From TrEMBL:
Predominant location category: membrane
Highest rank taxon of the organism: Bacteria
Entry keywords, A to Z: Cell membrane, Membrane, Transmembrane, Transmembrane helix, Transport
Example GO BP: peptide transport
Biased composition (Low complexity): 18-30
Organism in which the protein naturally occurs: Nonomuraea thailandensis
This protein's name: Amino acid/peptide:H+ symporter
NCBIfam families in the cross-refs: yjdL_sub1_fam (TIGR00924)
């Protein structure tokens, strides 16, 4: 039986004033034990008979049956009752677990065996309670025995001592339940014979509490009714402390930030560790441990893989909104990624490549967007530290991106490609283990599916996935799509998805004319972002082929791992980001507008590739110095500072109110499109002279930068 706030028969509620908006004026604190809706139950025989005849009552009222005189009669009829009146995210965080009941029963046994309960704290609390006839009990969130009342979420031991004496010191950060807030200034309660006789403290909390007691006009409001301790780990002070905005200083961040940053570091370690050696695995000869694929096929696979990874992130974001919670999506994604790397390490040849890359793309899709959204949850009410928190998180991303190729590249040259893949798996396992141990301390919101799909919708979604899988299998089996043109297929999917997003937003009646103007202004920036990432991700496609064929990797008598050359890009971002961010801060309103920043980034990467053209001209054959390529890739990587974070910022700023998530998804599509375009450009590299190629990819960004600079003011007027 489900108990709500409406009962059969008349409800004799007292007259109450109404606010202008229609809401009743809150009752004074002397009335907040049980309101008219429940006390009227004592005079309603029909409602009582229904409750007494029920096997189970789920109490969803705000005040709870615990405050009614009729509760005893209902329980004597062997009716079980569970009181649930907390927000969904609190319930999700504090689900009853196996063993909870045994633990609280053991605690109640301790109280029954004791004579006295003494509570102390480092802040000065020292309270002694007489346990004679204290009626020890427990709550475990499960009403499993006939005639039992319980409360979810509660896992605690409690008793009702007749008398207690001493003092309770409520320290800053402690929770003051009547006000549902955290104490700013210490409050001391003096207890004599079970009653609060004095409230001490110089802050506002002490004064508010004293007024609370005075307003009650009832000495029983000062009575210390019950005592005990909680055993729900996720609800203890330390688990909740990360969410307490008052427990902060300019340099302190939630502990869960480091859990997420460490997880992301190892995910990026494994991802970029694989990216650093993947092209070489496809290109190197069989005697060198590679697959000896044609360069055009190799770069097509790498580009298609990168595009699929970022496309999967959109599906992962949708799944975490409709199917599983973000917290679980990250966990499951990490497991799938680990399985993907292990497949690459254990299964030889094309079969291992196909299975491994598919699993990694799927797992990354589940993990990547959701771990970022959980970081945002940590700062839901703390905008002052949000940017700093994301900066640390971004630093972890780049640390993983730099560390991964360094170690996997060394492993590949020492023990072979499969050892490198295994090392990437080890890194992901490290992130997975520490995340699984600490995930329950993440914000409660991260455990909630915000917009759960119904059964019909789930069946429909499953049908779409099955249909898409069938189509892919058919086009692959017929040869319509193969390893050589796979990147064309992925590029088409990306462009179709992006076009669909833009069309829906521009035609939706829910989007205002001003919002549509901003979306139109965003379109050229989206195109520029997509093309920019196509140029940047050359380091995983065409540049890899160039390194194999033209770069001298020997330093003295030692051969540098080829994957190490890609490390310079993230290192450049790590070193230069603080400088550029400081520059924008100092310039304030005088800093360049968004389109001009894009133009700067495109000019930098275009200049880097023109330098590569110069180097290939000066050093013919396989004699290009590795240090020259290292520095040029660092220059190319530094350009991301002017595009990557700027693009995400503009996307969140111009997003229509009804399409915020979709606009962020559009920015993810720039990465997917860029990865695919890098594969397309890579196939071009395999079929034209090297000098001509670097001239094209050097001049094209400069032309695009010039066009953006000329239209910058127009774009800025639309997006603001």
């Amino acid at each position: 039986m489900l108990a709500g706030s409406c009962w059969p028969g008349p409800v004799h509620a007292p007259q109450q004033d109404v606010l202008p908006g229609g809401s009743p004026v809150p009752l004074p604190s002397s009335r907040t034990g049980s309101g008219a809706g429940l006390t009227s139950l004592d005079d309603n025989p029909l409602a009582l008979s229904l409750l007494e005849g029920a096997d189970m009552v789920l109490d969803l009222t705000n005040e709870g049956f615990i405050h009614t005189r009729s509760l005893g009669k209902i329980l004597q009829a062997r009716t079980r009752m569970l009181f649930v009146a907390d927000p969904p995210e609190v319930l999700a965080r504090n689900l009853p677990a196996p063993g909870d009941k045994a633990r609280v029963q053991a605690g109640a046994a301790l109280l029954r065996a004791g004579r006295e309960l003494r509570v102390t704290s480092p802040h000065g609390t020292d309270l002694v309670a007489d346990l004679t006839d204290a009626r020890p009990g427990f709550q475990c969130g499960i009403a499993d025995d006939p005639g039992r009342w319980d409360h979810w979420p509660s896992t605690m031991v409690l008793c009702w001592p007749k008398t207690s004496s001493g003092r309770i010191v409520i320290a800053p950060g402690d929770i003051l339940l009547p006000f549902k807030s955290h104490v700013r200034d210490a409050v001391t309660l003096v207890i004599e014979s079970g009653y609060i006789t004095e409230v001490q403290g110089s802050g506002g909390d002490a004064r508010m509490l004293e007024m609370f007691f005075e307003d009650a006009d009832d000495d029983e409001a000062r009575f210390l009714s019950h005592m005990g301790w909680g055993l729900m780990k996720n609800a203890d002070w330390f688990a909740m402390a990360d969410q307490v905005s008052l427990q902060r200083s300019p340099s302190r961040h939630p502990r869960s930030l480091w859990t997420l940053a460490f997880t992301e570091l190892w995910e990026r370690f494994s991802f970029y560790g694989l990216q650093g050696v993947l092209s070489f695995y496809l290109l190197y000869s069989l005697s060198e441990g590679g697959l000896a694929l044609d360069p055009s096929i190799a770069v097509s696979i790498v580009g298609a893989y990168g595009g699929a990874v970022h496309l999967a992130q959109i599906l992962g974001a949708w799944a975490a909104d409709r199917l599983v919670s973000p917290r679980q999506a990250v966990l499951q994604g990490a497991i799938i990624i680990t399985l993907g790397h292990l497949s690459l390490a254990a299964i030889p040849g094309i079969a291992g490549l196909a299975v491994g890359l598919a699993l990694i793309a799927l797992g990354t899709g589940a993990l990547k967007t959701n771990i970022s959204s959980i970081v945002g949850m940590l700062y839901a009410e703390d905008r002052d530290r949000r940017d700093a928190g994301f900066s640390y998180f971004y630093m972890a991303i780049n640390a993983g991106a730099a560390l991964g190729p360094l170690l996997t590249g060394l492993a590949q040259t020492t023990w072979g490609f499969h050892a490198a893949f295994a090392l990437a798996a080890v890194g992901m396992v490290g992130g997975l283990v520490q995340y699984s141990l600490k995930m329950r301390a993440l914000p409660a919101e991260s455990a909630v599916v915000k917009n759960p799909i119904d059964t019909r919708g789930a069946v429909r979604a499953l049908g779409v996935v099955a249909g898409a899988g069938l189509v892919i299998a058919l086009v692959w089996s017929t040869g319509l799509v193969n390893s050589g043109n796979l990147v064309h297929f992925v590029t088409g999917v990306v462009l179709f998805a992006a076009a669909a997003y833009f069309i829906v937003m521009l035609r939706s009646p829910a989007v205002s004319s001003e919002e549509k103007a901003r979306v139109r202004g965003f379109l050229p920036l989206w195109i520029a972002s997509t093309l920019y990432y196509g140029f940047l991700f050359q380091k995983f496609t065409a540049i890899s082929v160039f390194i194999r064929d033209r770069v001298d990797l020997f330093v003295g008598g030692w051969e540098m791992p080829a994957a190490w050359l890609s490390v310079s890009s993230p290192l450049a971002v790590i070193l230069l980001t603080p400088l550029v961010a400081s520059l924008w801060t100092r310039m304030g309103s005088r800093q360049p507008i968004t389109a001009v920043k894009y133009a700067i980034g495109l000019s930098v990467i275009g200049g880097a590739y023109l330098l590569m053209l110069l180097v290939t001209t000066v050093f013919p054959g396989q004699s290009v110095p590795a240090i020259a390529v290292l520095l040029i890739l660092a220059l190319a990587g530094s350009s991301e500072i002017f595009v990557g974070p700027i693009g995400l910022a503009i996307a969140t700023r111009i997003a229509p109110e009804r399409f915020k998530n979709q606009t962020v998804a559009l920015m993810l599509l720039t990465l997917a499109g860029g990865s695919s375009i890098s594969g397309l450009l890579g196939t071009l590299f395999a079929n034209i002279p090297t000098g001509a190629y670097f001239a094209i990819v050097g001049l094209a960004p400069l032309v695009l930068a010039l066009g953006l600079a000329k239209s910058a003011k127009r774009i800025d007027s639309l997006t603001n």
